[in-house]
Structure formats: C-alpha cells, structure tokens
Write a sequence for this structure.
C-alpha cells in the first residue's frame, strides 16, 4: 500500500511537470495538451497499473480543464462542446488505462507461467539426475525446495511409510495431516499460513502426499509438481524392482555355476573309480571269487552314485521358475522299470507291482524330466509307507493322455494338507521331525508335469495314497524342439 501511494505521488508530480511545460514553456494548444496527457496516462498504466492510471486520469482532466479550456484559470467551461471534449478525454484515458493495465497483467502472467514451466522442466530434469548417495525421496524434496524457492516442503510416501522434509521450516506439525491426505486423497490449504497440501496420485490411486510452504503456487502448477513427484516415485520403485530382478538373476546364475562346478568335482573322481573298476573287470582272471564280487559291487555302486549326482543336479536346476522341455519319443513303461531298478536299494526288497495296460504306445515327452518326476513319486511312496508294504504302479493310456498311478499303503495324507503338498518346501508337521526331506520333490514333479501341459494330483485316505500323473500323448511342436515353459 505504501509503495502504491508513492507511485501515485510520482505520477501526480510528473503530471504537474508536464502541465508546466505545456502551458508555460511550449504554450501548446488544447488538442496537443490532451494528447500529451493521454500519452502520459498510458505510460503510467503500462508501468504501474490501473489504480495509479485512474488517479492520474482524473487529475489530468482537472488540469486540462483549468489550464486549456476557456475561461482559463477556472474550472468553468464556457463552451458546451468543451464539456463533451473533456468527458471524452476522461473516458478515453480511463479506458486506455484499463486496457493498458490488462495488457501488462497478461504479459506479467505470461512471464510467470513461463517461469513456472521452466521450473517444472528443471524439476523434471532434476528427478532424472538423482543418485544413490541418499534416499530418493530426500533428494526429490530438496530439489523441489531449491527450484521453486520454497520456505519448506515435506513428502510422505504411503507405500514405504517414509517422511522426507527440506527447507528452513520442518513442517513437523503436519505429519498427521500428510498421512490423512495420502489416505483420503483430498487437498488441504488451511493447515498453516502460505502452506498447501495435495495428494500425489498415480492414476486414481493415491501413493503419497506433498506439503509446500512459501510463494503462492497456482493449482495447475501444484498439480504438475504432484504429477512429477508421482512419476519420480514410480520410476524409483521400478528401478528398485529392476535391481532386485538383476540381483536375483545374478544369484541364479551364480547358483547354476556352483551346481555345475560341484557336479564336475563329484564326477571327476567318480569317473576315475569307474574307469578302474571297468578295467579290472575286463581282466579279472587273477581275481578270486570274493574279489570279483566286491569289484562288481563297487562298479555297480559307482553307476548308482553317478545317477544320484545327476538326479541331485537336476533337482537343483529345476528348483526355479523356468523349465525347458526337450521332447523325444519314449516308452513310459520302460522308464518306470528303470526308475524301480535305480531305487532298489531304497525299496529294500518290498514288492513293487507294475501293471501296464496292453498296447501302451510310445509318445513324445522329455524323457529325463519325466523319469525324474516318476522317481520322486516312487521314492515318496517308499519313504512314507512302512517297509515291506507293497507299492503299486499302474500305467494307462487313451487317445489323448497317459495316466500313471503310484499307490502306497501308508498312513495317508490329511485332507487339509492335500492341497498344499505340491507347494515348495511344504512338509506335514506330523512327519517333519520323523522323516528327512526338503519339501521340493513333489513341487518339482508337479512343475515338470505342468511344463508338459499335464497334471499331477493326489487322492488319499488312511491306508492308501495314490498320486495320479497325467501326461499328454503328444506335445505340440516338432520332436526335439526346445520350448521353455514357466512352471510353478
């Protein structure tokens, strides 16, 4: 208000100087004086505003009347036409002042909008230049305060629950309001003087809230800042997820490398043992019967140990989300006999009844993986039923599927656990401490069947549990084609 009064006084002083120059020095006529007054009013309007120009217009009208309309030196007007001229001058000066002031305001508004756009652009660039030296939210709120010259700013990240502040005023008293704004998604501008709260939304979902204190921000600029904050938070979250995925990928790669290295280290001495036993058995004329028998056992157990290493490596590799299928024409009944033979030491002489239907045809599937799945089922049946109780394996086939049922006569699986036994690492609490295991075998078998577009289910009651392995007769695609499939 004080500065406006000074501007009005300066305008009147300028008007007085113009009047003295026009009347006493240059002695111009009324028309020239009127144009001079009008030009001066426009200068005042474009420089300072409408209020100053309005006061100057009325003062100029009075000076115009007093010094240039006869009778000069009075505020009377002798000629009625001069009244029209005087009021026309007043109206013209006021209208021109208003138009000039509006043009000035529009120009200032355009300049301010340009500055706001430049600030938004600078803020968007600053979001792209963040680093890992401190939390992203802390960098974001500090850059916002610096770029928009705010007294203070605060950001509440709803997803992480973190609060970040910057500026000379900490806005600590607004923590509760920030949380409420993030939950309710309702802007608030009545919290503190010159302070505005706004929700930060990603689409329609509120993910954070923002409080700023300082120079007045238009609603559009405040919303633009909130949108950039939402984009920045989502970008930071995406980068965090990408880093986690990359870390998981590197961990999986390291894991695979370690598995291969361990398999190599195990197989190297085993290959030497196998070569020695094979060489000795090839020329056993100098061996006694007992030595030959022991050598046969060593040779056979070397094969068994190699098979165990292969199965363990396969199990470790399959404990992931990606399973590759390499189909080849195979005989499912032949694979069942191979599995039973390989598990003879675990079966400990218990009867195993294999009942294939007549006319079981060969089909295309991954022989190695299906063999591993069947082995898990037979091993599981032997593990969870008492020694000496029989196992039953039945193989059936129709036009579309091969069905293999593995039945044991153990205690059975409680109904509440039957839906969970194919989950990774799940083991029944009732047997967890009694029977060793990892809880991975059935999960991997289930994933193998799903990778073949088949299924693995179970039916169980006390004294009888049957796992149903269902395998399509043919896999779509040519034999030998490598097709990755996401298993469970």
């Amino acid at each position: 208000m004080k500065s406006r009064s000074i501007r009005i006084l300066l305008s009147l002083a300028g008007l007085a100087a113009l009047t003295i120059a026009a009347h006493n020095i240059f002695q111009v006529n009324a028309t020239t004086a009127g144009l001079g007054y009008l030009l001066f009013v426009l200068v005042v309007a474009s420089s300072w505003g409408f209020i100053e120009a309005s006061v100057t217009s009325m003062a100029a009208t009075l000076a115009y009347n007093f010094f240039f309309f006869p009778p000069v030196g009075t505020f009377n007007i002798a000629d009625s036409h001069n009244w029209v001229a005087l009021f026309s001058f007043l109206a013209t000066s006021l209208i021109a002042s208003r138009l000039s002031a509006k043009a000035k305001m529009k120009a200032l508004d355009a300049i301010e909008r340009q500055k706001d756009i430049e600030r938004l652009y600078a803020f968007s660039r600053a979001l792209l230049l963040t680093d890992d030296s401190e939390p992203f939210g802390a960098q974001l709120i500090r850059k916002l305060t610096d770029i928009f010259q705010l007294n203070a700013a605060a950001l509440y990240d709803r997803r992480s629950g973190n609060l970040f502040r910057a500026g000379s005023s900490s806005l600590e008293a607004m923590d509760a309001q920030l949380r409420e704004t993030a939950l309710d998604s309702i802007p608030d501008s009545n919290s503190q003087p010159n302070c505005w709260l706004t929700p930060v939304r990603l689409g329609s979902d509120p993910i954070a809230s923002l409080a700023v204190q300082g120079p007045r921000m238009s609603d559009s600029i405040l919303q633009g800042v909130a949108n950039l904050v939402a984009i920045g938070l989502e970008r930071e979250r995406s980068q965090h997820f990408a880093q986690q995925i990359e870390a998981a990928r590197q961990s999986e790669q390291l894991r695979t490398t370690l598995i291969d290295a361990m398999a190599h280290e195990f197989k190297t001495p085993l290959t030497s043992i196998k070569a020695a036993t094979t060489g000795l058995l090839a020329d056993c004329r100098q061996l006694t019967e007992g030595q030959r028998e022991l050598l046969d056992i060593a040779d056979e157990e070397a094969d068994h140990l190699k098979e165990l290493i292969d199965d363990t490596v396969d199990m470790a590799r399959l404990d992931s989300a990606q399973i590759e299928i390499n189909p080849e024409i195979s005989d499912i009944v032949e694979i069942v006999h191979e599995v039973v033979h390989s598990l003879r030491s675990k079966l400990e002489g218990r009867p195993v009844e294999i009942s294939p239907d007549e006319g079981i045809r060969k089909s295309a599937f991954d022989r190695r993986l299906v063999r591993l799945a069947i082995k898990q089922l037979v091993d599981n049946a032997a593990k969870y039923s008492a020694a000496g109780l029989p196992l039953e394996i039945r193989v059936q086939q129709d036009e579309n599927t091969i069905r293999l049922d593995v039945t044991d006569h153990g205690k059975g699986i409680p109904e509440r656990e039957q839906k969970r036994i194919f989950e990774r690492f799940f083991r029944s609490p009732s047997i967890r401490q009694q029977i060793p295991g990892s809880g991975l075998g059935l999960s991997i078998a289930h994933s193998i069947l799903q990778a073949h577009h088949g299924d693995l289910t179970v039916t169980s009651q006390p004294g009888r549990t049957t796992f149903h392995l269902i395998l399509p007769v043919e896999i779509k695609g040519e034999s030998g084609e490598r097709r990755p499939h996401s298993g469970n």
